[in-house]
Amino acid sequence: IKRTKIVDLLKSTAFGSTVNVKGWVRTRRGSKQVNFIALNDGSTINNVQIVVDVDKLGEEFLKPITTGASISVNGTLVQSQGKGQSVEIQATEIEIYGTADPATYPLQKKGHSMEFLREIAHLRPRTNTFGAVFRIRHNMAYAIHKFFHDKGFFYFHTPIITASDCEGAGQMFQVTTKNLYNLKKDENGSILYDDDFFGKQTSLTVSGQLEGELAATALGQIYTFGPTFRAENSNTPRHLAEFWMIEPEVAFNDINDNMELAEEFIKYCVQWALDNCMDDVKFLNDMFDKGLIERLQGVLKDEFVRLPYTEGIKILEEAVAKGHKFEFPVYWGVDLASEHERFLVEEHFKRPVILTDYPKEIKAFYMKQNEDGKTVRAMDVLFPKIGEIIGGSEREADYDKLYNRIQELNIPMKDMWWYLDTRRFGTVPHSGFGLGFERLLLFVTGMANIRDVIPFPRTPNNAEF
Ligand code: 4AD
Ligand code: MG
C-alpha cells in the first residue's frame, strides 16, 4: 500500500481502510497490553497516534522503537477515542528502518534550550518548533513569489559574485580564488593563492539592487530573491552574515508608490501566514509567544504611519526630555538604533511606521536627493519587535547628481560605469526596496533570535553546519 502523509491522513474519514504511514517516532508509551506511538513525518506539526497491541507485535520487537526511530506502519484507520485527535491507526504491521539510541540521540522528549538546539542545527529540523518554523519559511517564500507574479513582476537573478559594493558600507566578504588546475607552489611546496581569477577583486554581494535597477529600466517591474552576505561584526538577534533578501524595483514609481507597494506586500505575506500556516503559527503562539497571533492580526488592521525622519527625531527627543532612557543618544543626523525604532512603533504610535527622508550622510549613494540638500528620499519600514524590516528609496535618476555623489564618496568609478549607464540612456524615475526575509520570519514566527529562522545560520565564529 502507498504511503499517506500524516497531514492528509488526519483529514481522512475513510475509517476501516488499511493505510500506511512512515515517519519518526516522537514518543512511545503505554502498558503491558497496549502501546501508543506518536508518529511525525514532517508534513504537519501534528502527530498521528499509532495504537499497538503488544501481544500481537511482541514486547521485544517494540523495544527499539524509541524517540527518534524511523518506522513504517501498516494498519487500520479508526476514529480516535482520545481528545485532541481525530483519527488513529491500529497497527497490524511495523517495519523499523532505523533506531536512535536513547543514550546518544540528543533530541529526547524534554524541553531543549534554543542555544543547545543551535549546536545541533543538523538535527533541529526534527523538533516541533523547527519543523513549524521551516514549514512557515517555505510558505512565506511561496507567498512572495505569488504576490509579485500575480502583479506582473518578473523574477530576475542577480549575481552573487560582484565587484561593486551596493551599500557602500564596506561589509563585503572577499572572494579569493585558488586556481586548482594551475597550482603554483613556493620553494617549500606551499600553495600560492591566485587572487586573480576574475582579473579584479570581487566579493559576495550585499544586495542585488544595482543589477535590479538595470532590469527594472528594461522590464519595468522586477524583483530579486536571493542570498546576500554582510561581514558586519554585529552579534545581535537581528543580524546574519548570510541572509536572504527580496528586492523589488519598479520603473516610474516614486517614493509614495514605493511605500504603498511595501505596505501591501508585507500585509499580503502576514495574511498568507494566517490563512495557510495556522497550525504552525498557533503552535508557536502557544509555546513561546502568547501575543503572536494578535500581533499578526494587528498589523493587518492598521494603516502604517508615514513620517519624515526629522519628525521622528523630534518625537524621540521629546521622550528623552520626559525622562525616557535610551542606551544610544538621539540627535538629528544619528543612524537610529533598534531601540529608537521600536520606541516609535511600540510605544508612541503602536503600529508600524514608515520613516522617510533620512539625512543623506547615513544612507547609500544611490538615493534621490531632496531639494533641501540635506536629506534623501529613503524609506525604512519599522515593525514591532523587529525594528527595521524593510529599507528602500526612490533612486537618484539624474546622471550628474548621481555622478557627483559617487565621486564625493570616493566610490571607484571603474566599478560603476555600467550602473551610471541607466541614467545616461533613457533614465526614468524609479524606486525599490529590500525586505530581509529572516526579519519577516522573525515577525511571523515570533522567534526571538534570527539564528532560529534560517536552517544554517552564519554569524561571527559560526559556520559549523
Ligand atoms: O537596508 P538595507 O541595507 O538595504 C539594501 O540593501 C537596499 N539595497 C535594499 C533596496 O533598496 N533594494 O537592507 C534591506 C533589509 C533590511 O531592512 C533588513 O530587513 C535586512 O535587509 N537586513 C538584514 N537581515 C539580516 N541580517 C543582516 N545583517 C541584515 N542587513 C540587512
Ligand atoms: Mg537599512
TrEMBL record:
Homodimer. The keyword Signal does not apply. Its main location: cytoplasm. Keywords: Aminoacyl-tRNA synthetase, ATP-binding, Cytoplasm, Ligase, Nucleotide-binding, Protein biosynthesis. It is found in: Cytoplasm. Belongs to the class-II aminoacyl-tRNA synthetase family. It comes from Parabacteroides faecalis. The keyword Transmembrane helix does not apply. Gene3D superfamilies: Bira Bifunctional Protein, Domain 2, Nucleic acid-binding proteins. Transmembrane segments: none annotated. This is Asparagine--tRNA ligase. GO terms for molecular function: asparagine-tRNA ligase activity. InterPro entries: Aa-tRNA-synt_II, aa-tRNA-synth_II, aa-tRNA-synth_II/BPL/LPL, Asn-tRNA-ligase, Asp/Asn-tRNA-synth_IIb, NA-bd_OB-fold, NA-bd_OB_tRNA.
